[in-house]
Structures are given as C-alpha cells and as structure tokens.
Amino acid sequence: MAYSDLTPAWLTGVEEPPLVEVSSGLRLHPDAGAAFLQLAAKAKTQGIELRLVSAWRGFAQQARIWQAKWRGERPVYDAQSGVVDLSTLSITEKAEAIMLYSALPGTSRHHWGSDFDWYDAAAVPADYRPQLLPEEYQQGPFQHACEFIAAHAADVGFYAPYAAYQGGVAPEPWHLSFMPLARECTSQLTPALVHHALLHSELDDKAQLIALLPEIFQRFVQNVAAMPEPSQLAKG
Ligand SMILES: [Zn+2]
C-alpha cells in the first residue's frame, strides 16, 4: 500500500486525512478501519466485543487534552496510576510526566488515522467507561481480549507500539497501530514538521516545548516497539 497523499498537515494532525467512521464519532483511515472491522469480527467468534475508545484525533483535540493536563485541569497519572503533583515540576519534568500517557500535539500517532485504543465491551457492564489504566488490561476485565489481540492483531496488520516501557511512553496494551500506514508516517514525520505545527499553535510555554523537541522526538516518538517487517508478517 502506498500513501502518496501523506502531507505534513496530515502527519501532525493539522488537517484531516481520509477517514471513515468506524463507530459513532470515531474515525480511522479507510485501510485501518477495514482491518479493525476484520479483527472485531474474528474477536466476536471468541466472545469479545472489540470497540474503539479513541481513534483519529487532530492537533486541536490533542492540544485540548494537553492544555487541560498542563494547567492541572485534568489528572496526570504516573505508571502506578497515582496522580502526579505538577505544581512542583519544571517545564521539562511536567512535559515528561504528561507524555507518559499523552503525546505532545503534533506527535500523536492518533493524528495518522492508523492508530486507536480499544476495549472489550463484552467484559464489562453496558455503562462502563474504559479509563485506559493498566489494571483494566493486565489482570482486569480486558485480559482475555489482550490475549486475543496478542495472538491475532498482526494477522490483519496491527501491532502494539507501546507494548512495553522503553523509557518513553508507558505500556499501553489498549493502543494498536495499522502497520502499512504507520510505517509510512513514522518514516516521514520529522521534528521540523512538529516544530512548524507547534509554532502555529496556542500552547502554553510553546517556545520551551519547541526547544525540547529533539529529545521529545527521540524518546517519545521514535522510541517505540520495533515493527515486524512485512515479510515476517506474510509468513505468519
Ligand atoms: Zn492511544
């Protein structure tokens, strides 16, 4: 699959890529959406109701999440699901704390249309709202679905970029990425493109954040699980 229409604005969430609505209000690139529906159909045969929690998000939406955390209006969690006290932290430390679970706007894989967060609606009451916390997935209600994902997601082109902690983003067992598109996005996204997007944003302390970009890019964007090569996938 070639994505010759990838643009800087798509890569940084500034403009919408081609999208299809997969479930109410939640959209993915058509290729990722089709693969998700295939995976969900297979999951259903094993008693799992695979649903999206979050799919494509633009720069503006990511900026709202970021700003709410930056200003202390929305909790920032540490790896043990404890709430971080941001008031005593430097700008660098604050950014690091937020980026454990929330990407700096312009660097989110959710901008690409390839990535989403899922849960298993069959494992919880109808009014359950997934919190995207490790305890829901590791030993909690979504453990069975995690095992299914580990065994079958690659069959339709998905992999888990945040499978393990590598010093950047926390383990996010709920986050999957459609490899054919994400591979292209990974190779084309650069700090310069993010710099440009941030410069035109209204983020608090954006000059300091821009100064941190080289480190952020290395530690939180490039530092993800290695993608299996397409040839390896074909064999599987
Ligand atoms: Zn995610």
Could you explain how this protein is built, in words?
The protein contains 11 helices and 6 strands. It is α+β, with helices and mostly antiparallel strands and 236 residues long. It has one domain: 2-Layer Sandwich (Muramoyl-pentapeptide Carboxypeptidase, domain 2), CATH 3.30.1380. The strands form 2 sheets. Strands 3-4-6-5 form a 4-stranded antiparallel sheet. Strands 1-2 form a two-stranded antiparallel ribbon. The chain starts with 7 loop residues before the first helix and ends with a helix. 36% of the residues are buried. The mean pLDDT is 95. The structure holds zinc ion (ZN). The site of zinc ion has 6 residues, from β4.
